[in-house]
Design a protein that fits this description.
About 25% of the residues lie in helices and about 30% in strands. The chain has 3 domains: about 160 residues, no CATH class; about 90 residues, no CATH class; about 80 residues, no CATH class. With about 350 residues, the chain is an alpha+beta fold. α6 crosses α7. The radius of gyration is 25 Å and the shape is elongated. The longest helix is centred in the N-terminal third of the chain and has 15 residues.
């Protein structure tokens, strides 16, 4: 990854030479492995407000003017933003222990500095209109950032699970390019402590289950030719968390623990619509009288083991050496047949 901070310094120097007055700026730093800088300035000579945005990853030379895109902002929008910032109850926040952050600075009656990770916090919900103005004036391809930023506010943060594709050699690239040191350390501990209960590569994806305080799912889609990686994790932390680090460490150590695999004999059961569209289903065990199945969304679903007639329509096509799953299913089926 480029040294985006050096380019950010060049961008700010460029605007300083223009002698503009900064109204507000947003920096999406390492946000889904992107570095986007957006600012609104007042151009004194033209007496207009302009929004400028730049993808710091795409800068190829020190001539910053070539890489900046700008457009005028309506005065009514500026008036709206002034009211938002002047009435903001929280004026200063700081993000701790994270390389992934959103930073907002605004020059209004009192200087405002805000930092947060990934999702706009609920206590800063009034900034939603600020982001609407920002991203309404950015190219359409950036609107995904907007919906992710405010997803806690609109209640759909669970939809933002897969990270953007990134260039990353899963076997060779330095882990520090993606993870903070603490997460690398924790990930190594998780692996050594045997918390990775399942890890298997199927086609172009690594599927993994880590048992901790909760059950965590990690799915890594990987293009071996292009070294392109896409990550899913149901951990509430950032995408590149300690659980993902643990899986990559395990992959590099050639660790594998295959999933139980099942087929279902009836195609009429609506539950199948929720599951991954393979010829078989990945299973991690039994809970009460249900099978813990990994769904296509990366969630663990509980599928009824028996139908209304207490018959089992599931067939185990891959078990462990001890036939643990087959024995458990047989015991539950036998117990219910005697009722």
């Amino acid at each position: 990854m480029k040294n985006v901070n050096s380019y950010l310094i060049l961008v700010k120097k460029y605007f300083k030479k223009l002698k503009t007055k900064l109204f507000a700026e947003v920096f999406l730093e390492n946000y889904n492995n992107r570095n986007i800088y957006i600012r609104i300035d007042f151009f004194k000579k033209a007496r207009v407000f302009k929004l400028s945005f730049i993808d710091l990853e795409h800068i190829e030379s020190n001539d910053i003017s070539v890489w900046i895109n700008s457009c005028n902002v309506e005065p009514n929008s500026i008036f709206l933003l002034e009211n938002i910032f002047n009435n903001l109850k929280i004026q200063n926040t700081s993000t701790k222990d994270s390389n992934y952050r959103v930073t907002i600075n605004a020059n209004v009656k009192s200087s405002i500095h805000l930092e947060f990770n990934r999702f706009l916090p609920l206590d800063l919900y009034s900034l939603t209109d600020f982001f609407i103005v920002i991203f309404n004036n950015c190219p359409k391809k950036y609107e995904g950032f907007f919906f992710e930023l405010i997803s806690l506010i609109i209640g759909n943060s669970s939809e933002f699970t897969y990270n953007d594709e990134i260039k990353f050699d899963i076997l060779k690239t330095n882990l520090k390019n993606l993870f903070i040191n603490e997460d690398i350390k924790k990930g190594n501990e998780y692996y050594k402590e045997g918390l990775i209960k399942f890890l298997e590569k199927i086609e172009n994806k690594y599927y993994a289950i880590i048992e901790g305080v909760e059950t965590y799912v990690v799915i890594i889609e990987y293009d071996e030719k292009e070294n392109i990686m896409k990550v899913y994790s149901n951990c509430p932390c950032n995408f590149y968390c300690k659980h993902v680090a643990a899986i990559i460490i395990a992959i590099r150590d050639n660790y594998e623990k295959r999933f139980y695999k099942l087929t279902y004999d009836s195609e009429k059961n609506s539950f199948l619509e929720k599951l991954i569209h393979y010829k078989f289903f990945l299973c991690i065990g039994v809970q009460n009288e249900g099978l813990k199945i990994l769904s296509k969304d990366g969630n663990i679903e509980i599928a009824p083991l028996l139908d209304i007639n207490n018959k089992c329509s599931w067939s185990v096509i891959e078990d462990d050496d001890k036939k643990s799953l087959s024995k458990r299913i047989k015991a539950i089926t036998l117990k219910n047949s005697l009722k």
